[in-house]
């Protein structure tokens, strides 16, 4: 099974996305399932994971409706108000009954407080996710949030967490530390996974697999293939490339690894993590 473990949809007439504006150029429009489907077929992708694009119930409900009408959707990562545990508990009770709802994400990087995710109320809500065997996608954008992952893993050891986009390493500037040390510290926690996704938008305009290789190799050294999963980050990927480029260049970067490792990263890990 080939799984794209990180893609988005947004409909600008149905849901408000305050972060998205004309300055985002090619992605400032509605992107829906009919736009993605031919790209999946061309790449040979069997299932996708739709990940929330806004901290709202409207966005989560929209994703779940989309999943119900497309058999290639394997999972939805939605949203509940993690800083309001009582409300989160009630909403999780409802959402968990939907077979596509597999986990939660919050746009941590949009919060003014860089330490938002480690407040006691959020930790309490993360424990609610663990109790229901739901996952947490961590928007651990370096340098503000990646450092919190080991603390979260220690506080909620039964919660399966995944770091989106390898926490956006400083690829364009050929940066390394302290990103590498922070990623390694996160990987030392057995309940933490990571996504090989969103790397092209952290790279130079003429990026290729060779520019990403060092960061991908390091992630594999830290996590192993069984805790790494591929994601396109489409349509955000269109800011510096397209769906095909991300898929093909990622496969090139993985070409030197054993077949079982490639199969895990390109599908098996995501299928297990999100219970697809």
From TrEMBL:
Residues 3-276 form the Amidohydrolase-related domain. One of its GO terms (molecular function) is hydrolase activity. Pfam families: Amidohydro_2. Belongs to the metallo-dependent hydrolases superfamily. This is L-fuconolactonase.
